Fold this protein.
Amino acid sequence: MPSELASRFDAQDRTIGPLPASVLVLGGGPDSERPVSIKSSNGIAEALRSTGKLAVHLEIIDRLSLDQLRALPGEAIFPYLHGPYGEGGPLQDLLVQDGRPFVGSGPRAARLAMDKVATKFAASRLGIPTPDGFVLNPADPTCPAGLPAIIKPIHEGSTIGLHVCDTAQQYAAAIAAIAAIRAERASNPDRSYIVERKVPGRELTVGVIDGHALPIIEIGPAQGLYDFEAKYNRDDTRYILDPDLPAGIAERIKSQSVALARELGCRHIARVDFMLEHAAGGPVAWLLEINTTPGFTDHSLVPKAARHAGVSTPSLCEGLVRMAMRDRA
């Protein structure tokens, strides 16, 4: 029996929104996640073309001026740039000025979701557990979160710039590496970092499509952390759909994911990541972060979860374009 989400996508013309005659897919961008963005945007363009329902224009860009954006064809825009420029607000500002309907969150939600500190504040308002976080001060002689800890940039994704610190020596090495990057003044010299307790347990992710939670995926990297290599390049990462979880956990993190996306103002698509810790007082699902432009490569999680719910990648991409047309106002 098809899921509720699959039934809705099967009747897209009646329940989601109209379909434009043409769509502009944007990929690339100036940030470190550019190669992943190119893969994602190519996958989206291919999926949309396979529907045979609309003309698809794919543009791989760096940065755009408003005049350059307005010169590109397409009745609607499907931007899929990973990183601070493409999913953190600057591109969304241009898209609003351009005036065409576009897929994804608007500027304010993009900025809030990219900001890990702002996301923690939102989670706190909703009562969603999240590890205590400290803005990194490299002058601190000891780790403010205790050890083991995670250091990660406040405004990055895909584990870019992430450091795992199990020992004081690893913490000192991370601080030295961060100081060296800043000293170069060429790659994100003003990048700020957050320090959190390293939560042990099972990594879970929940896709959210138009306010509906997708099936949960448990991530099992073959070696250690689910880092950039495990996400995009390795083939030995295990993905368990609808994993067996303690009573109430699945329902709770699904509802929390939908609530967090709504609180931040996210629209159309998002992915929310948790770490399930089996603590002495019972299991706790700790929020890690939210992503408004989750990957669309052959390794990516939201398309996997959508397919498990009965929604093909072409149908998902078409539905996202229809949502943009519906929400153009």
